[in-house]
Each structure stands twice: as structure tokens, then as C-alpha cells.
Amino acid sequence: MDPIIRTRGLTRRFGELVAVDGLDLEVARGEIFGLVGPDGAGKTTTLRMLCGLMDPTEGSAEVAGFDVAREPQAVKDRIGYMAQRFGLYSDLSVRENMDFYADLFGVTGAERSDLSRRLLAMTRMEPFRDRRAGQLSGGMKQKLALMCTLLHRPEILFLDEPTNGVDPVSRRDFWTILYQLLKDGITILMTTAYLDEAERCNRVGLMHRGSLIRCDAPEALKLAAGAENLEAVFIRTVRAAETAGGS
Ligand SMILES: Nc1ncnc2c1ncn2[C@@H]1O[C@H](COP(=O)(O)OP(=O)(O)OP(=O)(O)O)[C@@H](O)[C@H]1O
Ligand SMILES: [Mg+2]
Questions:
Q1: What is the pLDDT of residue 29?
Q2: Which of the residues 46, 109, 111, 142 has the least number of beta carbons within 10 Å of its own beta carbon?
């Protein structure tokens, strides 16, 4: 395995609370890795540390060959982060939102117009380029947020619940785009609340109370748990962990 993301004992505390607890995680270059877990498991906190946006309390993480705590800017230059609540300007059009992020990332001239054109074609958002972001459907808003993130030309894409609240048809469209990005050589680390989506990832990590309690390919996870789908694996594993943890 050629890991492009590697964490060792990655930990983040908020006072007494250990939000991420000694995480050892490796993500291979070119794979799509899904992080799942109940609310508050520490998924967003993990992503923020990997994006160089929040310092670990203990342990370390390397992303694209750079240490997230020592060289956060080098990490930020190579990644795209689509936050759980990504900032779109509802009064601005699709095009204007894209221009805003292109400015922010210093993408200008012919490169900006080529990239914007390709992204609008890939997401089939061309017909909506002049529509205000506030008037878009949930699925289209997420596609716009993804395009804005991709204007940074990232090597690694971090997506925090990118399809939350999006209808099944739009979710499928979104996945078609993700597979296209994988073909282009981008590595994707995503969190999702949808276990059928996790099933489409190369590997899945199950987080619970800050720890990675399972990590493997979906088929292997199902086989090991004797479960027919990831939802059953998830429920059984989390229940067992809670019983063991005394709550
Ligand atoms: N800035 C912060 N200050 C204090 N506590 C925080 C902070 N950020 C997160 N937490 C706490 O850390 C824990 C993990 O939060 P996190 O947002 O990483 O979970 P999550 O797995 O992303 O949850 P969700 O599925 O609800 O998005 C939670 O108990 C949360 O309340
Ligand atoms: Mg979260």
C-alpha cells in the first residue's frame, strides 16, 4: 500500500472530552475511503486535523507527505475540504460562487475558464450556471460546493457528509462524479451517514467515541460480522462497543 494519508495515535481533546482517541489510519493513494460512525464519534474532528485546520493534541498525521501540525499550509495547498456546512453565497449565482472560490485559490485566466467549463460539464450544472445558489435544490447545492472545492485542483478530497439530505437520484449522480474523480487519480476520504454509500467505498472505517473500531473493505467487514449489509455490521458493532464500554 502507498499511503497518502497516515495517522499515528492521532488524538484531539476538548477539555475532558477525547473527541479523537489514538487514531491509526492509512488511506492509499487513489482509493475512496469512507468514515462512518454515530453522531459525535469524532469524524469531523478527524477531517479537520487531516486538513491542517485544527492541531492534534497528541499523535501525528501525514497528508500528501506533509505533517499536518508542522506544515499545515503545504497540506492545505494539496487538498480540497468540503465541510459539513460548506459556505455558499445564496445571493450569488453558481458562476459567481465558483469565481469567488477561484479568486480565493488564485486560479485565474484561461486556467479558470477551462476548469470551470469542465466542472460544469462533469456535474451537468451548465444549464444552471446563472441560477442563484439559494434557489438550487439540495443536490445541486452539494454539486456546487463540490465544484468550488475542486477549483483548488486537490490531490486529496475530504468530504464531510457530502450527500446529507440529498435525494437518492441526486446522490447517485454525485457518486458518478466521485468515480470520475477517482479515475482522474484523486484520493477521496469521506464521511457519510448512509451505509449504502459506505458500501461503495474501497474501504470503510467505523468510528465510535473517537476510536476506529473496524477498518476494512465492505465485503470483509460483512464476512467477519456474518452480516448481509454494512448497516447490520454497523449496528452490531456499535452495540457491542457500547455494552463493553458500560453504557
Ligand atoms: N470545537 C469543539 N469544542 C468542544 N467540543 C467539540 C468541538 N468540536 C467537536 N466537539 C465534540 O467532539 C465530539 C466529536 O465531534 P465531531 O463533530 O468530530 O463528531 P462527528 O462524528 O463529526 O459527528 P456528526 O456525525 O454529528 O457530524 C463531540 O462530542 C463534539 O461535541
Ligand atoms: Mg461531523
A1: 97
A2: 109
Q: If you measure from the C-alpha of residue 154 to the centroid of ligand 1, how many angstroms do you get, rounded to a whole number? A: 25
Q: Ligand 1 atom closest to Cα of 37?
A: 21
Q: Which of 39, 44, 197 has most ligand 1 atoms within 8 Å of its beta carbon, as the pocket-test mutant?
A: 44
pTM higher than 0.90 for the full model? yes
pLDDT band, very low/low/confident/very high, at 24 (cuts 50, 70, 90): very high
| Class of the CATH-defined domain 3-216 | alpha beta
The residue extents of the domains of the chain are 3-216
* Residues 64-74: tens digit of each pLDDT: 999 999 999 99
In 15-101 the beta strands, taken as DSSP E runs, fall at 17-28, 32-36, 58-63, 66-67, 79-82
Amino acid at 78: R
Question: Cβ of 191: how many Cβ atoms within 10 Å?
Answer: 24
What number of other Cβ atoms are within 10 A of residue 94's Cβ?
A: 28
